[in-house]
Amino acid sequence: MEAFCRLPSVTRRQLEQANHCRLFLRAITLSDITDMDGDCIDSIPLEYLDWRARLDSPLLWPWQPQPTKKMWNVFRRLIREAFCSNHNFRRGEPYALDSPLGRWRHVPVQSYHNAYRTDDRLYLTCHC
Fold first, then answer.
1. Alpha-carbon span 110 to 102, nearest angstrom
2. pLDDT tens-digit map of 50-106
3. By three-state DSSP, how is residue 6 classified?
């Protein structure tokens, strides 16, 4: 959200809509919505995600209703402006980040991911 606030033309209403989407997804950092390599953001149409697709987290999150299509559009546009300005947006392609994320750091767990990658291993979560 800090990067969104620094955008020159963003309005308070747009920030509220983007934050609604972020809270619905339970995303704290950019890495929560990027691929495992930290190179891009998947192009899944976010408006089709439901509550089961959100990140799993040990934190207590406020209840957020499903964002509207307009809210998702604002969220995607702000992501493009803040993090993917050099990307050629073709339908269905992931959003390539202007600056790929660095190496994973060991920090307190705020969200659980389906997979983690180190230099030599890939760890997958089993939902058996």
1. 18
2. 555 556 667 777 888 889 989 988 998 899 899 988 766 666 677 888 888 877 666
3. coil
